[in-house]
Structures are given as C-alpha cells and as structure tokens.
Structure prediction request, 331 residues.
Amino acid sequence: MFKAIKSFPETRLRRLRKDDWSRRMVRQNNLTVNDLVYPIFVTEEQNGTKIESMPGIERIPEKRILKEIEEIELMGIPAVAIFPVISKEKKTALGEESFNSNGLIQRIVREIKRKEFNIGIITDVALDPYTNHGQDGILEDNGTIDNDGTLEVLTKQALSHAEAGADVIAPSDMMDGRIGVIRTELEKKGFKNTKILAYSAKYASSFYGPFRDAVGSKSSLAGGSKEQYQMDPSNSDEAIHEVFLDIQEGADMVMIKPGIPYLDIIYRIKQEFQIPTFAYQVSGEYSMLKGAIDKGWLPKKAINESLIAIKRSGADGILTYFAKEIAQDLR
Ligand code: PBG
Prediction:
C-alpha cells in the first residue's frame, strides 16, 4: 500500500494533528450516546443500596425504577440491560424464581412497558442470580452443570420475559444450544419481534467480581468457577465458532465480554460476520477505571479512551456502567 518514493519532509503526519478542527475533521471513530447501553441492578429491597466494589453504582429499588428509566431516556441512551438482585430466601438449586411470571424482573418490565418510553429493555437470561449455588445453570449430582436440563429452565425464563414485554432477551449463561431453543419457543408463542442479543463469546473472566458482589452471586458461588461453560481466555478461534452457531440459531445481535481485554476478539468477529456486534465493558473494568480516577491516578478522559478503543475494534455498541456519566458529557 505505501510504496513511498518520498516521505519526509513531503509527508508530515503531524500536519493534520496540529489543530483541533483538523483532528476532528479526519477523526475515524466517534463516540455518541447511541453507542451506549446502560446496565442497571434492581433490587426487591425497599431502599437502594450502594455496591462497595462499584463506586457510584447502586442497586435500584423497584419503586424508583420508572424515575430511573425516565432519566436514562432523557439522556438519549437507547437501551438498558436489567439485572435482578434477589433475596437469599428465593434462591434455590433449580432457580425456579427465574421464570416466576410475577418475579422482580417480570414485574419491572411490565411496569416500564406500560409507560411507552422510547427506550429498549434488555433482560438477562441466566440462572446465577436465582440459584443458591450461584451457577448459571442447574447442577447434576456430580456437580457438573447440566446443559440440557438448564435449557428447559432458560426457555421458561426467556418466555416469561417476552410475555412481560421485554424487547431484547439476552442469554448470558453460555449453555450450548440455548439461542436455538429460545428462538424456537418465542416463534412458537408468537413473539416474532422479540430480539435476541446473544452473549456469544463470554469468557470465564476475573473481571466479573464486582458484578457478583452486586447481585450476590459471589457468596453463593463460594469460590466455584464457571470454566465449564464460559470460554477459556486463551482461545480466540472458538469465539468465531460460538458466534457462528448463535447466528445460525437465530440471534439478532452478538456480544463479546469483557471488553478491553478482548479487543482482538471483537475485531475478528466483526470482520468475519458483519452483524450487529456488542461489547460489554464489565464491572471489573468499570471498577479499575473508576477506582483509579477517584484516587486521582488517572484522568477522567481515560473512560472515553477505553470506550473509543472498543468502538475502533469494531463494536457497534457498548454496555457500560459509565453510560450515564458519558452521555451527560456527550451533550
Ligand atoms: C451472569 C452474568 C455475569 C455478568 C453478566 N451476566 C457474571 C458472571 O458470569 O458471573 C457480568 C457483568 C459484569 O461483570 O459487569 N449470567
């Protein structure tokens, strides 16, 4: 491409970097509010509670959810992803509360949809907030995760979300075949416009710690790992295979998770498939940045840099706990 005959001084790349206007004029990637999805934690408790390992993020009580959504809609953020914080007494080995048609998520989705906000509601399909062992699936007697048994529960959970009015179902459990069975069920029950955002390449990552504090699955997990179903951080070809299967099974959008440590995966997937591709800047990434910024060790601009890096790698949108903060700055 660059068979340069002449270079310096004819070519000076600094010319276009010199002024603000020229930097803006040639800028290849821009972050806009439309790139952001805001993950929120909702709790059954009466009052909101702070999450110690995620400074600035709160578990929002049900009674405040409409106000919260209104605020987010006003900022122009196109969608929220809702995660439940369930009381210990409701957690069971099989996670039955996950498909309770009158459970926390189902109630909240119905409440939000009644108001006809101009905002997409994404719900998480996985059992970890509902199981007393903190795994995303149900266990066989020997302690392994029962893939096919879990599919039945996930299908019920997904259907209950669709019935409540969820716009997007987002399975984050990493069971094999779940996109297919959920899509089949949705079609069968007439939910032909319910979208599926598949957490296709979800890695067994250490960066989920603060999220597990937030939903209380860390204590349930009691040191257990998710390596039986989430991807090995050492692999990248497998991510292509995962995404391929999810598209075939009926996913409308795919996701890579975490974000910054997996930019090569985002890049490869977008190059390979050219379908709507999302990245999740997860709780640990948030806490690292937020912690360092709060201490004055990093400037706040580090947030924008992390988000533009994710976009540059090919993501069409980013789930980030910084969404509100950044949306405000982008105005
Ligand atoms: C679990 C789930 C996790 C996250 C989203 N859904 C954690 C996990 O797999 O243990 C993590 C999100 C984050 O860290 O911000 N189904």
The mean pLDDT is 96. Residues 32-330 form a domain with the TIM Barrel fold (CATH 3.20.20.70).
